[in-house]
Amino acid sequence: MAAPHAPVAGEAGSGDTELSLASSISEDGKRPQFGTRFLTDPRQVFQHNAWDNVEWTEEQEASAKKKVLENCQPLPSEKQEEYENRANEYWNDFYTIHENRFFKDRHWLFTEFPELCPQCSPNNVTHQKVSSTGRCVQDEERAKQGAAVSPINVNFPGATASYRILEVGCGVGNTVFPILKTNNDPELFVYCCDFSSTAVDLVKTNPEYNLGRCFAFVHDLSDVEANYPIPDGTLDVIVLIFVLSALHPIKMQASISRLARLLKPGGVMLLRDYGRYDMAQLRFKKGRCLSDNFYVRGDGTRVYFFTQEELHSMFTEAGLEKVQNLVDRRLQVNRGKQLTMYRVWIQCKYHKPLVPSPETLFEASEGILRRLP
């Protein structure tokens, strides 16, 4: 259900996200963490493929808001129900048509999310002590504490691993395969799931798919009653890359809260997704709006554009604490065509506290009260 996605002419797609992120990779093959390349002289705009942390002018932001308001008339309710009821069909059709041709190796993944690298703790990714087993001391201590809180049923894939990662909305494996290739930790096990059975089949038939280190399964993130093949309290990291935005907004909170139950105490949820007034949102034409900031693409798949505050509210209501919540405002440049494109993404890291703080409990209760009728 996640990106990659083929852009439709004249409409927003998520394939451009992969291309945009990849375009800022330096000549040595490494992409610097965002926020490190600044445009100080507008005359130099076409010297690089991308510029970080670009501030918008008041006029630019006003223009973006006006554009969104012009195209905010929602489609009829019966049409919206059709897109909701046929969501699985639309994603299966997408992967049937494109198969794995939109696979993009996410070179930026380990720069932005070092928690996915070998010997990395979700909460302490630098200056870590490594034990004689080759794993972070913090990871081993957290694993012991997590085991004490939530005894593990040994009858599930990856039960003997001590470090577990789940990618939600895996598509054709844009995140899971780079993790498996880069992280050679023998104690690592990676799970991946997608709404589309076609996408999961493509993952399973990939030559790099290894049942000894990975388990792929079909799962509807929005169905909070459906069981995961993983017990609660057993995951170290959950990854959501351009996937939450594909859900209907009314189903997002329950989905995040359900995922949070899977985390160990100290585990972390990583998210990167579309931000409000991203170029992809501004490209939508009239007749594509489903509700505020929620749209349908030409192929029937849907996308939402977030604010930092919306995501913070969801994560804290799920009982998680903020590690990072950043807006990545990036100016992408097509030097050949002399075009500039403004992208807005949000990147979040929220962890499950070993012991919930009073602030976490208060924010979670406040979120629940706001949702009551």
Automatic annotation (TrEMBL):
Residue ranges of the region described as Disordered: 1-39
Known EC number: 2.1.1.-
Keywords: Methyltransferase, S-adenosyl-L-methionine, Transferase, tRNA processing
Coiled-coil spans in chain: none
Gene Ontology BP annotations: methylation; tRNA processing
Keyword 4Fe-4S: no
Pfam families given in the database record: Methyltransf_23
Record-stated family: Belongs to the methyltransferase superfamily. METL family.
Protein name (Swiss-Prot/TrEMBL): tRNA N(3)-cytidine methyltransferase
Gene that produces this protein: mettl2a
